[in-house]
Amino acid sequence: MTEPVQHARLRPLADPAHLPALKPAYVHASPAIGLGPLDPPPRILLLYGSLRERSYSRLAVEEAARLLQHFGCETRIFDPFDLPLPDQFAGDDHPAVHELREHSLWSEGQVWCSPERHGQITGIMKTQIDHLPLAYKGLRPTQGRTLAVMQVSAGSQSFNSVNSLRVLGRWMRMFTIPNQSSVAKAYEEFDEAGRMKPSSYYDRIVDVVEELVRFTVLMRPHADQLVDRYSERVDQDRPVHAAAEILGSA
User: CA-to-CA distance for 190 and 97, rounded, in angstroms?
Assistant: First the structure.
C-alpha cells in the first residue's frame, strides 16, 4: 500500500485575515456569486520562484493567498526549498516532487509568481513547472485548471516573466486569466513585516485574485467537457459513447 504524501512543504500563512492594504468599501465579499457553485471552496495552489529569506515573489503570493481566503477559497503555498532538478533522480522519485504533484492534482486553479532574472523567470520557477507532467499515472496535474500569473522586479516594470508564464500555462493546457500583475521595484512595496503597502500594484493583485476566483468558479461545472479531446479519446481507445457519459449527454 502506498504511503500518503506528507505535506512537509506547505508554507504557513501568517495573519491570513489581516488585510491592511485592502479598502473594504470597494470589495465584493463573494466576487464569483452567481457564476457557479461556491461549495466546496475553490482550491488554489500558489507557486513562487525564489529561495531568498526575504523573497518578494513569496511575499506577493502570500498577499494573493490572503485575498483568496478572504474570497472563500482554500489555498496551499508550496515551498520548493528542497525540490531537485528534473531528471536528477531516476523517475523524479523524490518526496518534494511527489508532494508538488499531489498539490497540483488537488488544485482547481493556480497562481504562479516569479521574479524576473536576466529578463526571464527564475530556474526555481521553471523547475517547479517542469516537474508537473501533462499526464501522470492516468491523471493530468494541470490540464483544465485556471491560472493567474504574476511577477516581481528589482527595477522598472517589466512583463517578460508574466509573458513567459503565459506561454508555459498554455503549454500545460491551463486556462490563463486575462489579468496579470507585475510589481516594479518590489523592495519598495513591502514593509519590514513583509506586508504589501497600499499602492496601485496591490490593487492590481486584488484584481487578479478576483478574476481568478470568478473564472475558477465559472469553469468548475464544465471542467471535464472543456478538456475532452479527440486525440486523447483515440489514444485511450475511448469511443464517443464513453466520452458522452463524461459530458453528461449520453
Answer: 31
Dihedral sign computed on CA atoms, order 203, 47, 43, 170:
positive
Tell me if 62 sits within 8 A of 240, measured CB to CB. Answer: no
**215-247 per-residue burial string, b: 16 or more CB within 10 A, e: under 16:** bbbebbeebeeebeeeeeeeeeeeeeeebeeee
Q: How far apart are CA 21 and CA 222, in angstroms?
A: 35
Quote the CA–CA distance of 162 and 180 in Å, as a whole number.
Answer: 7
Give the DSSP H or E segment for 175.
Answer: strand 175-183
Q: Say if residue 10 is exposed, middle or buried (CB neighbours under 10 Å; 0-12, 13-18, 19+).
A: middle
**pLDDT tens per residue, range 120-171:** 999 999 999 999 988 777 778 899 999 999 999 999 898 999 999 999 999 9
